[in-house]
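In response to the reviewer comment on reproducibility (Comment 2.3), we provide here a single inverse folding case reported in full, input and output, so that an independent group could reproduce the run without further information from us. The structure tokens appear first.
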């Protein structure tokens, strides 16, 4: 299936430099571009500083469009800030695309990742083609049984989400394992209401319902608390 795509990263384009929506396919109009720019993570937005760290993210862009994205480190930051440049690859999917995966964005993400999608593109043009996402295979089971302790975490997370809380799960080193079990526990009609990130720092302009944080950084906890986000530990 073909969907629109975009890339948010730090580039120099003529007289403009810094983090911006640097590339997009033709179907990403200015309204969608503005929303993606608002949600786009900039310098040092990943919780984990390791060069191989990444984050998978999901949120609504409009009433009939959802963004599935992966944020990862690119090359060295060209500006005086130093460190690593962040690159976020967006795929924009409609409800009909997600229905093929039973409204489970994790299943789509896992299949796309297994086929090498959402990796770095270098170089890339400002005008991108549509992205070809794989279709689900009836012979592949993506929802593997949860490991010991995951089910207990999911029970508490679901209970708090049902009470309207925003959550940050700390000490979480395999967030996809918890997420895939959690999403399958939700009614299919409610799954697309859950926005999440598996590794971006809490911030006001990215109002995810559910954050997963490696370790237990005091700075991340303070940032979450300031935004009214409750912190839970995946380690008990």
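Designed residues, in position order:
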């Amino acid at each position: 299936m073909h969907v629109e795509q975009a890339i948010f990263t730090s580039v120099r384009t003529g007289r403009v430099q810094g983090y911006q929506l640097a590339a997009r396919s033709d179907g990403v109009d200015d309204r969608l571009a503005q929303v993606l720019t608002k949600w786009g993570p900039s310098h040092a937005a990943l919780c984990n500083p390791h060069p191989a760290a990444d984050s998978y993210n999901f949120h609504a862009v409009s009433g009939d469009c959802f963004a599935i994205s992966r944020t990862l480190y690119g090359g060295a930051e060209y500006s005086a800030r130093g460190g690593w440049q962040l690159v976020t690859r967006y795929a924009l999917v409609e409800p009909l695309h997600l229905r093929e995966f039973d409204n489970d964005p994790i299943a789509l993400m896992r299949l796309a990742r297994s086929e090498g999608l959402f990796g770095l593109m270098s170089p890339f043009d400002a005008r991108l083609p549509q992205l070809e996402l794989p279709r689900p295979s009836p012979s592949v089971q993506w929802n593997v049984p949860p490991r010991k302790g995951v089910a207990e975490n999911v029970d508490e997370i679901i209970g708090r989400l049902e009470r309207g809380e925003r959550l940050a799960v700390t000490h979480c080193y395999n967030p996809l394992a918890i997420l895939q079990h959690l999403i399958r526990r939700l009614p299919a009609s409610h799954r697309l209401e859950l926005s999440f990130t598996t590794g971006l720092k809490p911030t006001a302009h990215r109002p995810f319902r559910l954050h997963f944080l490696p370790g237990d950084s005091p700075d991340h906890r303070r940032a979450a608390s300031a935004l009214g986000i409750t912190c839970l530990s995946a380690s008990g």
